[in-house]
Amino acid sequence: MISRFGYIINLLKALERNVLHSFGHPPRELAIVQIYERQSSNPPKKFSIKDIIGDGMLLAVPKFRRTIEKRWKRKFGSPEYVWKMLVPKTNIKVCQDCGHHHERGRLCGNCYNRVESETKEIQAKIQEKLGLNPIEKDVIVLYEGENVPEMPNEFWEGKRIIEMKKERPQWFSKNLLQKSTQQPSSSKDVKPTDLA
Amino acid sequence: MNQAQVTKLVSKLRIKVAPEPRRLRNPKGPEGRLDKLRKTVTGLIKFERIELNFNRADEARQYAERLISEAIVHGDCHKPTMEIADYWLLEKELIHKLFKVLVPRYENCNTAFTKMYRAPRPLYSRNIEKAVLELRGNPYPSLINKQYSNRHLIQNVLLDAAKYDYRQAKYAEMADKIGKTENQELNKLSKKDEITTE
């Protein structure tokens, strides 16, 4: 039954081919193929960033990767300008007076602190003693238990004595090489007799 | 050339002066810079020892040196010098100090009138160069003790003498020891000789 049906279809096809061929049409195998494209009704949307972020916002982010040179420069600095690596200092000296360390060409921190506090005390004392008087005399600082050094009267002319109410600090010694003018001795020279 | 030498009209400073003045930053410009320096010079003359930023200290030092040397050269009866002193010293009682205290102090001085040291730099802090500026011959304890290496300083003389004594004593001891050992050896040798002869 099926084979007969198929035979009939083939017959019909052959008949169709012969009839159409007689009208000058090319055979069906050589016919021009026409491709139909369904055009979509709404055209595609253009890409926009708003589709992604919606109501949110964007932060600024680097666009390009930094080069390795720049990253190293940031990390380690530059030896000519700012060198960030840990480098041993070679300009450290030992203070000859107190034994602390300090930079070469600079005052020793320990000694300077000591001197600074003492200086400020003396300065305050001088200002307090001076008051509103005119500054016309040089200053001499005396500590507790110190007597006015015996000097000729000329030395004391135009000097202002400031007394500190404490003992002289050990490290603030008086100048050992200070020049001291001696008073002429009261002993009378006696000429030797009976020499010859 | 009948022209006076300019170098002899201006007092020569005993410190190193930079060829160009520092343009210290100030919102008022050069005028403000001078105001600041006047304050500093006044403070230096008043307190005789101050600590401040290095650049300002170095700049103020030059003006202070110039002021003192002018005062020494011309004295207090010279009108232009008095005007300079009036300009640079904001507290007017310091003008008296300049002419009555500092001029006699530095009259016979053949070095600079001021001293400047670099102040110790604190660790782990902003790196500001500080300086200590002081007048010579101030009554405060000295900032540096340079005399430890002076051979003629009394401590060094005493130490040298003590070292010398110690060394002499040691030499004498050593000489004694050597003498004793030699005597003992001689004694031993003579004993041996006696034994062999027997």
Automatic annotation (TrEMBL), chain A:
Protein name per Swiss-Prot or TrEMBL: Large ribosomal subunit protein bL32m
Keywords on record: Mitochondrion, Ribonucleoprotein, Ribosomal protein, Transit peptide
GO MF annotation, one: structural constituent of ribosome
InterPro entries: Mitoribosomal_protein_bL32, Ribosomal_bL32, Ribosomal_zn-bd
SUPFAM superfamilies in alphabetical order: Zn-binding ribosomal proteins
Similarity-based family: Belongs to the bacterial ribosomal protein bL32 family.
Residue numbers spanned by region Disordered: 174-196
Protein origin, superkingdom: Eukaryota
GO biological process: translation
Species per Swiss-Prot/TrEMBL record: Parnassius mnemosyne (clouded apollo)
From TrEMBL, chain B:
Cross-referenced Pfam families: Ribosomal_L17 (PF01196)
GO terms (BP aspect): translation
InterPro entries for this protein: Ribosomal_bL17, Ribosomal_bL17_sf
Gene3D superfamilies: Ribosomal protein L17
Keyword Nucleotide-binding (UniProt): no
Keyword presence, Metal-binding: no
Family under the similarity heading: Belongs to the bacterial ribosomal protein bL17 family.
Protein name: Large ribosomal subunit protein bL17m
Organism: Parnassius mnemosyne
